[in-house]
Amino acid sequence: MRIRIPQKTFSDVLTRAQAILDRKSPRPILEHVLLEAFEGSVRVSTTDLRVSLTQRVGAEIDQPGSVALPGRKLHEIIREMPKGDVVLEMKENRWVTLTAGKGEFHLPGSDPDEFPTMPSPPDRFLQLGTASFRTMLEKTLFASSNDESRMYLCGVYIRSLQNDAGEPVLRMVATDGHRLNLIDRPVDTEIDIFRDGMILPKKGLSELRSLLETEDDQFDIASGDGKVFTRFDGVDMALTLIDGTFPNYEQVVPPVSPNPLVVPREEFIQGLRRVSLLSDQDTHSVILEATGDEAIITAMNPMFGDAREVIEAPHDGEPIRIAFNAAYFLEALKSLDGEKVLVSVGESLAPCLVQSEADPRYLCVVMPMRID
Amino acid sequence: MSFSSIVGHERPVRVLRRALASGRVPHAYLFWGPDGVGKERVAGAAAGALLCTDPGALERAEGCGACPACRKLDAGDHPDLHRLVPDGASIPVDAVRRLQEALAYRSFERGRKVAIIRDGFRMTREAANALLKTLEEPPGGTHIFLLARHRSQLLPTLVSRCQSLRFDPLAHDQVLAVLRDLGAPPEQAAALAGASGGCPGVVWGEDPGVVLDRVQEAEDLVARWDDLAAAERFEWAGRWAGSRDDLAHRLDCLEHALQRRMRRTAGTGRPDERTLDRLDAITRVRRWLDRNVNVQLALDALFLDAAGREWEDLTCDP
């Protein structure tokens, strides 16, 4: 195997591959990248068995072949190499020589057969809008859980369904048990692969979101063998689904209150930020009260003191008094668009619904805390 | 690894193959029996049948040995076979959580997922409780093989959620066959088999000369034990405590030598209380060692005959 590839191209490909490399796996081969040189191009594959990434880049192939190389070291070396072409050549016993300018590096390669077989995508791909899908991920991913003992929450639930008007929509839901985000976006035709709903892992979706920062309007998506496949710009990604049943989220989403509290979003964010400086360090608990034309946010910390801020917010309904985690509320508010947000509060311990006036199809639900 | 290459263990293999062939494979098995008896090999054979991509594999209760999945299993790098091995003396809760995370995903190669937990009794209490959750609500298409010396070493809540299969020590001929299969030359295999106590895994890879020395040492000790002065007993304990890697096998050899003595004296009509007591002491010392008791103190107690059945009368055994 002998290839010649521009340093910048190779470095970019390996940077993307880094995010997938497994750092804590008992299988050393998963810390490798698989390089396969065909006619006119090189395929660079990485997998941690949950997210698999295959990138195709143009290169001058003097001699085809394949080898698995330690991913992190290879990346560090290529990143530091001078601009221009890098020559990668496999010698005896899979020793690989990297040459650029006057520098020469030798790395021990591994048998490519030891590398897991990359999942093969089905024949049929559907097309989805890049911008819309990326927005949906941005508005849900942060709400998914990191608790590995409840893996079914460590991802985003994606489902295609019809809205009340009978139009096809794609829905994403994420929750960590304390808050829940739900977003619907219209699609041209029903995305049948998501008809039954599936839970996609957080790590893979984060990678997908960064890959989706492309100028292409659309990308390809498919599903099969317990995986979701995406394809665009010579990059193939396969996400292994999380096994399990997603909780019945519809039960948690409260109805929109007929008299919601209407709060200017930016003021609310700034106020909450300031007040939460004196919230309890463990619970981040702040109290929101609303009567008449104003909303009052208060926080109390037995060690450091207390804080109170008033925001002008018209409210027609019953007086409100709830406590909640300021961090969750802030994240929800930041993810909303528009100038005004609507806060629907039911009984004291019922879930609280936050949404933007401008986008009724994106809902944030925050579970309140008990006020002692 | 296939069932046809397994020597002995007729009952567990029969039960397993019946379950596999019926397609109703329990989600969790507990294989219990002495170290090195072949539990992991049998679990590997079951994993072969479960993960083989040949459509008839499950019905045959045997992997085909030729498909990519079987080849990966033989090479030890099948992505859907997860092995959990102790990290030193214990299996920490983090390791169990990592396994649970891995099992929470759908399989990588469009089939089932298998986890083999070696020395399951080494799980810390937190680790065992964490695993309990997976055993209570196993992810779909997942099979867990928990291996242990004795089921009493595991939390009853774990045991009750697994189908238990007991593995007995192999007969001398069977150990010989296993060692020969593994590639031991005949005369070495014979020497090692004699010192294996029916568990080929204990002696496989050991130098036959060293193994025979240990057997001889144990025989000498059993013959002279009663006459040893206190200072000599401490010396024995000190020497054994100094080479911890061999300790488990030395204790095995001692146990076998005591068992041989029991058999020799069985016809005399006089029960050999002292030998029985020492056998009991070995079991107790092993348990202590698993619980990180000071090795020197445990062996002092063994050689001074202070760890036998009287122990429970003297103290409150943990």
* Class from helix and strand fractions of chain B: alpha/beta
Shape of chain B: globular
CATH topology of the largest domain in chain B: Rossmann fold
Biggest β-sheet description of chain B: 5 strands, parallel
Structural class of chain A: alpha+beta
Concise synopsis of the structure shown:
Helix content of chain A is 17%, strand content 41%.
Question: Can you characterise this structure?
Answer:
The complex is a heterodimer of chains A (372) and B (318). With 372 residues, chain A is an alpha+beta fold. Chain A folds into three domains: 2-114, DNA Polymerase III, Chain A, domain 2, CATH 3.10.150.10; 126-251, DNA Polymerase III, subunit A, domain 2 (DNA Polymerase III, Chain A, domain 2, Roll); 261-366, DNA Polymerase III, Chain A, domain 2 (Roll). Chain A is built from six helices and 25 strands. Chain A has an eight-stranded antiparallel sheet with strand order 6-2-3-4-17-16-15-10. An eight-stranded antiparallel sheet of chain A has the order 14-11-12-13-25-24-23-18. In chain A, helix 5 packs antiparallel against helix 6. By secondary structure, chain B is an alpha/beta fold. Chain B folds into two domains: 3-166, Rossmann fold; 207-314, no CATH class. Chain B has 16 helices and five strands. Chain B has a five-stranded parallel sheet, with helices on both faces. In chain B, strand 2 (81-84), helix 5 (93-104) and strand 3 form a beta-alpha-beta unit. Chain B is globular and about 65 Å long. At the A-B interface, loops of A face helix 5 of B.
